[in-house]
């Protein structure tokens, strides 16, 4: 049976009315749109676990502050938004491309050791011995201007 979208009424959770739902269901004109919930704890834990693999690559001035720095980054809404997948099956989870891009920026600021190559950091992040798509495409993720400004403030304190 072909149903035109003009025959359907979008029903949000705020508009829920049991009588209307029964009527529209009987007519075959109802669907429920559940907004996707992004759980902050999910992506925060994923990112912190992911970057834990390169904790021993932190430069000396940042060694005692790296955990607090990552927590501050994740507490900033625009940075957390940048580091989170928005669409698809992975929506609400960590964006590994963006995290790799951010680690690269942090290395250029001296947070991670300068004697390490970005490739070496990537291999540790991914816990692998070969490059993968997260390394090959991390440069495609541009940091928004607002996020750059906040990051600059966070990284410029030492």
Please characterize this protein's 3D structure:
By secondary structure, this protein is mainly alpha-helical. The protein folds into two domains: 1-35, no CATH class; 40-155. The protein is built from eight helices and two strands. The protein has helices at residues 18-27, 40-51, 66-75, 77-82, 96-108, 118-126, 133-136, 145-155; strands spanning 9-11, 30-32. Strands 1-2 form a two-stranded parallel ribbon. Strand 1, helix 1 (18-27) and strand 2 form a beta-alpha-beta unit. Helix 5 (96-108) runs antiparallel to helix 6 (118-126). The longest helix is centred in the middle third of the chain and has 13 residues, at 96-108. The radius of gyration is 22 Å and the shape is elongated.
Features of the shown structure:
158 residues, two-stranded parallel sheet, 8 helices
Shape verdict: elongated
Spans of at least 5 consecutive residues with low confidence: none
Q: How much of the residues is beta strand, in percent? A: under 5%
Gyration radius from CA atoms, angstroms: 22 Å
Number of helices: 8
Oligomeric status:
single chain
Helix content: 40-55%
Largest sheet: 2 strands, parallel
Average residue pLDDT: 82
CA distance, first residue to last residue? 65 Å
Tell me the structural class. Answer: mainly alpha
Number of strand segments: 2
**Side-by-side strand order of the widest sheet:** 1-2
Total number of domains: 2
Order of helices and strands: EHEHHHHHHH
